[in-house]
User: Fold this.
Amino acid sequence: MAQNSQGIQTLLEAEKDASKIVTKARQYRVQRLKDARAEAQKEIEVLKAEKGKEFSGLEQQYSGSNDDSFAKVNAETDKKIVEIDAAYKQHKDQVIDRILASLVNVEPKVHVNTRSA
Assistant:
C-alpha cells in the first residue's frame, strides 16, 4: 500500500507540475497578446502621424494652388476689364453716331406681307 500511496503522490506532483506549466503558458500567451496589442498601437500611431503629415502637405500644396489660381483669375479679370473699357472708349462715339443716324434717317417701306390692292 505504501507503493500505491507513493504512486498517487507522484501523480499528484505531476498534476501540480502540469498545472504550473499550463498556468505559465497561459500567462505567457496573455503577455504576448498584450505586447502585440501595444506594438500594434504604436504602429498605428506612427502610421497616423505619417498620414497626417502627408495630408497636411497635400492640403498646403493644393490650398496654395487655390490661392495662386485665385490670384491668376483676378489678374485676368482685371486685364479683361481694362481691355473692355478701352474698347468702349474707342468705339463709343461711332456707336452713338450709328444709333442716332438710324433714329433720324427713317426710310419708310411697305411691309412684305402687305397686299397690294
